[in-house]
Design brief:
single chain; mainly alpha; elongated; 4 helices
Amino acid sequence: MLDRLPVEIVERIVTKIPDTDLIAASKVDRVWWQEVRREAYKRWENYATTIGDVYCEIQALGKHYIKREIDWITFEDVNDLYKRWINRLTEDQLYIMEKMLRNGMVVDP
C-alpha cells in the first residue's frame, strides 16, 4: 500500500516528520528516499538561513550596545540567548547532514 501512494501525499507526509525520524522514512522505497532527501536538504538550508539571520541580529545588537542605546546587562542577556539559539540550530543542522551522509543522500559535488 505505501509503495502506491501518490507522490503528492508522500510529500505532505514527509514534511510533517520530525528531524529525528526523517531519514528512517527513506527506507520505504525509492520515491520516499527522494522525497526525504529533498526535505532534508530544504531543512538544512532553512537552518543555515535562520543561523545567518540570527547572526545579523547579533551584529545589530552589538551596534546598539556600542552606541550606548542598550545597557550592558541587556546586551549580555540577549547576546547569550542568541548564541544558545545559534548553537541549537547548528546542532540540528549538523544532525540532518550527518544522517544524510550516512545514508548516501549527499551526492552534490
